[in-house]
Write a structure and sequence with these properties.
Order of helices and strands: HEEEHHHHHHEEHH
Number of strands: 5
Structural class: mainly alpha
Strand order of the largest sheet: 1-3-2
Largest sheet: 3 strands, antiparallel
Oligomer: single chain
Distance between the termini: 71 Å
Radius of gyration: 22 Å
Length: 200
């Protein structure tokens, strides 16, 4: 029993040391302008980890950080172009709130209360029209052979509500074309893109 306590204490001290050197060191309340996350200390007390837009996200979000080196991940393509997490995750208010309300876990859980907005995507990719013009070779085909460019869809309330991230997933290696087929199938569940074939 005594050995377990010693090993657990040593592991906890090592973890605190790693977090301190990785930029996720516990700080007292008020030392940051961003959100604060409560982290359990080895002795059972709580410390506050301050978040700011300059924080090293990889210190807590290991899986997402690893995806920046994973072939086929959108995160890798962005990392190779020199983009950082904060270039896509731009909603500082939502990020601050998410970090304030989150409980620390190792590894940290995926942020579910923030989104990457279309505006963040279009800050680099110019406009939906530009993307459609540059992706004429991207084609989705329904079960009847009807082919469409998913970036150049007929205007409709459902199409207008689609977000870039409905098909483009940054931190998983699922090809965007597969995600797009799945997104289309969520409405075109009969495998037909033409309207009026299911609901009349």
């Amino acid at each position: 029993m005594k050995n377990r306590i010693i090993i657990a204490s040593a592991a906890a001290i090592a973890l605190v040391g790693i977090l301190a050197t990785a930029g996720c060191a516990p700080q007292a309340n008020g030392e940051s302008e961003g959100g604060n996350t409560t982290v359990p200390e080895p002795n059972g007390s709580q410390a506050t980890v301050a978040w700011s837009p300059d924080s090293d996200c990889s210190a807590c979000h290991e899986k997402e950080a690893d995806s920046a080196g994973e072939a086929g991940c959108l995160a890798q393509a962005h990392a190779q172009e020199g983009y950082a997490c904060s270039d896509c995750h731009v909603d500082e208010q939502a990020l601050s709130a998410a970090h304030e309300q989150s409980a620390s876990s190792s590894p940290a859980s995926k942020l579910k209360k923030t989104d990457v907005s279309d505006e963040a995507c279009l800050a680099c990719h110019e406009s939906r029209e530009t993307v459609a013009a540059e992706t004429t070779d991207v084609v989705l085909t329904d079960d009847h052979g009807t082919a469409v460019n998913p970036h150049d869809l007929a205007p409709s309330p459902d199409h207008d509500a689609l977000a870039c991230t409905d098909c483009h997933v940054s931190h998983e290696a699922t090809p965007a074309i597969e995600e797009a087929q799945s997104t289309c199938a969520s409405c075109h569940h009969a495998g037909v893109f033409e309207c009026g074939t299911c609901h009349t």
